[in-house]
Amino acid sequence: MMNVKVVRMVLGGGALLLAAAGHASAVDLFNGKDFSGWELQTTPAAPMSAAFTVRPGGVIASSGQPSGFLATTASYRNYRLHVEWRWTAKPGNGGVLLHISPGPMDRVWPVSLQVQTKHGSVGDILPMAGYGFAEPPTSAPGAQPVIKARMAADSELPAGEWNSADIVSRDGTVEVTVNGAAQNKVTQASPRFGRIGFQLEGAPYELRGVALTPLD
């Protein structure tokens, strides 16, 4: 197996990581010890310890509060992202943010593409703060938030069980699979790269197995 050469480009004070050649291996985005390589943005501002903690075995626990998001400090282009999550109390709202980029905020949300983990809506896609893609939304004209609903029957597991999402982002096409079921796809996504993050929207949850595989 060939090793992957990872190229780091400095863009606007951040780093863009992409695979340059060879066959990539998955890289854990959390180191299992602390939140090196991540930053928290909330309203009101809060310390990391109030929103996220590392539990034994590298499980990441979120209090779900205050409103905001946790994001990588590095940006990524062309990758497969694996994420596992479960609700630890009453199921609520949350999401995985892709391609987080500088720009006008929508309340506490950055320019990004949200893959919903909201209970009952897992697999929906939302363009946040002016994000764009080619496909028309399924939400009513003028409705907020703008939503492109999942394409298949609900594949979310019962509350308390670990769900998994596999998200492939390549050259502006983003495909979402939830617990093995293909649930959504958009093309001509803009921007096509950026940071990766997790929302805080009031409900506590846990994360594990957050791994990114660069794609050629």
UniProtKB/TrEMBL annotation:
GO molecular function, one term: hydrolase activity
Source superkingdom: Bacteria
UniProt KW Signal keyword: yes
3-keto-alpha-glucoside-1,2-lyase/3-keto-2-hydroxy-glucal hydratase domain: residues covered: 26-210
Chaperone in keyword set: no
Pfam family, one: 3keto-disac_hyd
Alphabetic keyword roster: Signal
Signal peptide: 1-26
Family matches, as InterPro entries: AL/BT2_dom
Protein name (record): 3-keto-alpha-glucoside-1,2-lyase/3-keto-2-hydroxy-glucal hydratase domain-containing protein
Organism: Pseudoduganella namucuonensis
